[in-house]
Structures are given as C-alpha cells and as structure tokens.
Design a protein that fits this description.
About 75% of the residues lie in helices and about 0% in strands. By secondary structure, the protein is mainly alpha-helical. The protein has 2 domains: about 180 residues, MFS general substrate transporter like domains (Growth Hormone, Chain: A, Up-down Bundle), CATH 1.20.1250; about 180 residues, Growth Hormone, Chain: A (Up-down Bundle), CATH 1.20.1250. The longest helix has about 45 residues. The radius of gyration is 21 Å and the shape is globular.
Length: about 400
C-alpha cells in the first residue's frame, strides 16, 4: 500500500526531473558563454586575425540579437517546438564553432561565425522561455534554476583561464566548441512541455505583445536597467587597470559580482515583494552603484559595490521573469523573451557606443550617464507597475462587485 508521503514524493518527481535537467542545460549554455567571452578574441588574435577584423567579428552576436533572434524564438513558439528548437540550435552551435575552429581567413571566419551566432544567440531566450513554461506548470521558482547558469559561467571562465597556461592560444576555440558540444548533449535530456492554448482575452498573436502597455513597460524597464551596465562591461577592467589594480584583483572583483548574483537567485524564492517592486529596487540600486563607482572609490569600497551586482542585475532579472510569468500568456513566453532580448541588445549596444564617446572625454564620469539609464528604468516600472504586474486582459477591466468596486 502506497502511503501519502510516497504519493507526494512521486508527484514531485516530474518537477524535480525537469529542474535537474534544465539546471544542467543552463550550466552548459552559460559555461560556453564563460569560455567564449574572455577567450574568443584571444583565439582570433592567435590565428593571425587583424584587430579591425576582430572588432567586426565579435560584433556579430549583438546584431543577431535584434535581427535573427526574435524571428527564431517566435517561429519556435508558433509551431510549439520550443524544446526541438533548443536541441537544434544547440547542435548547430556546436557544429558552427567546430567549423570556425578549422578556419584562419578573416572573411571565412566572419561568415561561419555569423551563421553560428544566428543559432547561438537565441539559445538563452529560448531556454528562459522554456524555463518560464516549466515554472508555471510545476510551480517552481526561476532563480534557483537560473543560478546554475551563473555558476557555470564563472567555472567556464576560470577553467579556460587555467587552460591558457597549458595549451596554445590557437587551440582555445576547441574549448569553446567542446562546451557547446556539452550543451548539445544536455539538450537531449530536456523534457517535453505541453503548452496550453490561448485563454479567453489572451494575446493571440506575437505582434500583439508589442502593442500591449504592460509588456512594453516590462521590456523598456529591463532594457534600460540592464543596459545601464554598458560602461561596467566595457570599461571596468580598463579603468581598474589604470588605477594600478593587478589582474588577480580585477578577476576577483568580477567574481564578486557574479557570486552576489548567484546568492540573489538562490534566495529569490523567499522574496515577498512583488516582481515589479523588485525591478524598481534593482534600478534604484543601479543609480546608487553607478554614482559611487563614478567617484573611483578605493578597492575596499569597490569590492562592496561589486556585491551590488546581485541587485542591479540579479534582482532585476528575477523581477522581470516574475512579471513575464504573471503577465504574458503561456503560449507566448519564448516570443516575449525574444523581444526582451532584442530590445536589451539594442539599448546595450547603443549605450556601449555612447559610453565610449563619454568615457573618452570624461573617464569615470561615464557612469553618471548609466545612473540616469537605471533611474529611467526604475521610473518606467514604477509608473507602469499596475499594467506590468497584472495578467493581460485584467488590468484594463473595471472592478467587479466582488472586489468592492
């Protein structure tokens, strides 16, 4: 005879299996990113690619984020083939990086990498969309799933950094391709998820998302707050090096930020504030962080400020994902992720270009512009929180008698 406790454990098994396999896939995907970001340019240089070509080649993923990416996420969702799209793009990414590794001519590398990026950049929004469907179906929390991606990013970057000491730089591409291959294998373990059809009054088309005020609020707030990290991502290491900090100290400062991000993801199930207020707090934390960073504080203060990455990035991400689960219909979560990533890519790229101009003239003063971006994102969410934090189709309905209206 099966006891109630045995029955409860059995009922939880699908959710645990889903969470474990998704965590493994998140780890593989972000582990690949962790090996790519620091060391792909190093490989390009090692095989004799000119700096001008390196800049052009490494800019390709940013372009695909707001061109090809939304098309692929929307296509996968329209055909209810999200898991299949994740598997296909994972394998094509691994194959693409392997082909890139066989080339040494800049134009050929550019073409092969552009095709690879078309498959690679949709992976994260596809995975986030898949995760949100699982969160809604199994009653899970996004943060504990996503933290494995951040942890793997750190491990991938550190592991690749250690390998630089023992293998020639021209072989680093095979580390990146190998991590992509692990992601492809991990994708085979992902569980199929049935997606319910549109509910009454739900959004019935992907383009309708772009005319819906609540979603536009979510997308704008996310893009502005995450885009406010542009100076940090682009010039932090350069400015720290200019103040005399060594490579180990700089690496430790970056690691502190990611560790704080992981802690926020781990603790997120205990948060009691609404997702909209989490986003507002993330934006206001960005204002504080960038204003202090602009003063070029000593390394001890800088270390504390780096811990705020858990708020400026992590808390904002948790809040945005929570809003998407509440607001966007289940059959459009991957499409919403595609639009969100595209918008963030546009803002981040524009902010990076603008920050280069400002940094060249004002140095650390460029962080003041980032504080304004973060404040704008927090303001957008504050004033649009009602529409963003309410399921589509309910925010604009009159109060019912049951609500006392």
């Amino acid at each position: 005879m099966i006891s109630e406790s045995d029955s409860a454990i059995a009922s939880q098994m699908p959710a645990r299996r889903f969470a474990a396999r998704l965590a493994l896939f998140y780890g593989a995907v972000f582990g690949s990113v962790g090996t790519y970001l620091p060391f792909f340019p190093v490989w390009l240089k090692a095989v004799g690619i000119d700096p001008s070509w390196i800049g052009l080649i490494t800019a390709v993923p940013s372009v695909t984020r707001f061109t090809v990416l939304p098309f692929i996420t929307g296509l996968a969702e329209r055909h209810r083939a999200l898991r299949a799209a994740m598997i296909a793009t994972s394998f094509l990414t691994a194959i693409g990086f392997s082909i890139v590794g066989l080339l040494d001519q800049p134009l050929l590398i550019f073409i092969a990498f552009a095709l690879t990026a078309c498959m690679w950049t949709p992976l994260v929004p596809l995975t986030d969309g898949y995760a949100l469907k699982g969160v809604a179906r199994y009653g899970l929390d996004y943060g504990p799933l996503r933290l494995w991606g951040s942890a793997a990013f750190v491990v991938g970057a550190l592991a690749c950094g250690l390998l630089v000491e023992v293998i020639a730089a021209k072989h680093l591409i095979w580390v990146i391709a190998g991590m992509a291959g692990l992601g492809a294998l991990a994708s085979l373990g992902l569980q199929p998820l049935t997606t319910p059809g549109p509910a009454p009054r739900a959004l019935t088309s992907a383009t309708a998302l772009l005319r819906e005020r609540g979603f536009l609020t979510i997308m704008a707030a996310s893009a502005l707050i995450q885009g406010s990290h542009a100076v940090y991502y682009t010039f932090a290491s350069i400015s720290w090096q200019g103040t005399g900090l060594g490579g180990l100290t700089i690496a430790a400062l970056w690691a502190l930020g990611v560790v704080a991000e992981i802690v926020v993801f781990a603790l997120s199930p205990r948060f009691t504030l609404s997702p909209a207020l989490l986003v507002v707090l993330g934006g206001l934390s960005g204002v504080t962080r960038w204003l202090i960073t602009a003063q070029q504080p000593p390394v001890a203060v800088l270390a504390v400020i780096q811990l705020m990455h858990g708020l400026t990035y992590g808390l904002t991400q948790v809040g945005i994902m929570g809003l998407l689960v509440r607001h966007v219909p289940g059959h459009l979560t991957a499409t919403a992720q595609g639009y969100l990533t595209a918008c963030t890519g546009i803002v981040m790229s524009s902010a990076a270009i603008l920050s280069g101009v400002i940094y060249a003239r004002y140095g650390q003063g460029a962080y003041h512009a980032m504080a304004l971006l973060a404040l704008a994102g927090a303001s957008v969410m504050w004033f649009g929180r009602h529409q963003a934090d309410t399921p589509y189709g309910l925010a604009d309905q009159p109060q019912s008698a049951a609500s006392g209206g």
